[in-house]
Amino acid sequence: MNTIHTFKVEGIAGETLDFAALAGKKILVVNVASECGLTPQYQQLQELYEEFGDRLTIVGFPANNFGAQEPGSNQEIQSFCTRRYGVTFPLSAKIDVTTHPVYQWLTQKALNGVQDSEVTWNFQKYALDEQGRLVHVFPPTTSPLDEGILEWLNQ
């Protein structure tokens, strides 16, 4: 079975984000948007990243799929996230969640070996274990500081 560790994606500043380098850490993959009612979750994601950074990496995937709520360029998105929320966790270049290979893997049981899911809105959270396997899908409205996410991190 493939794991998320087989993927490399373009980072928001043009660098390569290699998921293989995250082996041994839990990963929270989140599709993010700057003009969404859920955008304040960036702050909670950053708090989570700072508190659990020794064993967790968060990777944000900016996407304009829902309500056209991520209209900016990669540079504008990065500037907004840094200035407004102090984001230091990795961000990918802007993607389309319906076609991007990482999201194809995350949403198709035939690829991830665990479950089918649908990205329903901005800030849906995919939790992966230290071996890069999908273990949970948290709905967009679930706070990054939700008890279920904290329990998963403390396992």
Overview of this protein structure:
This protein has 155 residues and is of the alpha+beta class. The protein has one domain (4-153): Glutaredoxin (3-Layer(aba) Sandwich), CATH 3.40.30.10. It contains five helices and six strands. It has a four-stranded mixed beta sheet with strand order 4-3-5-6, with helices on one face. A hairpin with a 5-residue loop joins strand 5 and strand 6 (134-138). The chain is globular, with a radius of gyration of 14 Å.
CATH hierarchy class name: Alpha Beta
- Strand tally, please? 6
The helix/strand order is EEEHEHHHEEH
The number of domains: 1
Q: What separation lies between the terminal Cα atoms?
A: 23 Å
**What's the CATH superfamily, by name?**
Glutaredoxin
* Outline: globular
Biggest β-sheet description: 4 strands, mixed
Mean pLDDT: 97
Q: Give the helix/strand class.
A: alpha+beta
The poorly predicted ranges are: none
Helix content: 25-40%
Q: Which fold name corresponds to the CATH topology?
A: Glutaredoxin
The proportion of residues in beta strands is: 15-25%
Indicate the radius of gyration in whole angstroms.
Answer: 14 Å
